[in-house]
């Protein structure tokens, strides 16, 4: 099963340095190893990483090159950046990438956050660090739909599903949500699949934006 397989993560940094040389630890439960790649990301053509992590100062400048290199390959991504402005976070989120703000994670907890983020995006779920979540909520508030529309949307979900969506929108992954609600990770993932279907969402990205009141991007 995929849940028992550890991930190979491709790491790219715009300045060719990676500040967390100790990551992943040998006993990391999610990540087995890393592959260093640099622009123009030729290494991505020669291997098949499970997740790509891009560390950069300005995602608007660095992310397009990575997306171009990936082409039509659907490889989950995480962006790590010091930027906390709403526009940057929303745009990264809209392309389906997780977002970790530098400074939100450090030490042992930071290593676990990065590993949890890699696992979360590998199975199609949202992962945001706390500052990124705040920025996304602010962006969604600016684009908010009417109160009536929000009430109708939220009424589609059961009380338990609403609890899960509220936690998902703060950047928590399935395992963390399970811990908060005393549910198994499998149960949370099953609930998330049902939520996506009810909200007509492609995945975590669409679901969170709709839950927060942002103008949805409907399926075609």
Which bin fits the share of residues in helices? 40-55%
Distance between the termini: 31 Å
Shape: globular
Mean pLDDT reading:
81
Report the total helices. Answer: 10
Which residues form runs of ≥5 with pLDDT under 50? 215-220
Describe the largest sheet.
5 strands, parallel
Computed Rg: 17 Å
Helix and strand run: EEHEHEHEHHHHHHH
How many individual β-strands? Answer: 5
Within the largest sheet, what's the order of strands? Answer: 2-1-3-4-5
The helix/strand class is alpha/beta
Beta-strand residue fraction: 5-15%
Concise synopsis of the structure shown:
The chain is α/β, with parallel strands linked by helices. Helices cover 47% and strands 12% of the residues.
Short key terms for the protein model shown above:
single chain; disordered C terminus
Structure write-up:
- With 220 residues, the protein is of the alpha/beta class.
- Helix content is 47%, strand content 12%.
- The protein has 10 helices and 5 strands, in the order E-E-H-E-H-E-H-E-H-H-H-H-H-H-H.
- Strand 3, helix 2 and strand 4 form a beta-alpha-beta unit.
- Helix 3 packs across helix 5 and helix 8 packs across helix 9.
- The longest helix has 16 residues.
- The protein starts with 6 loop residues before the first strand and ends in a 9-residue tail after the last helix.
- 40% of the residues are buried.
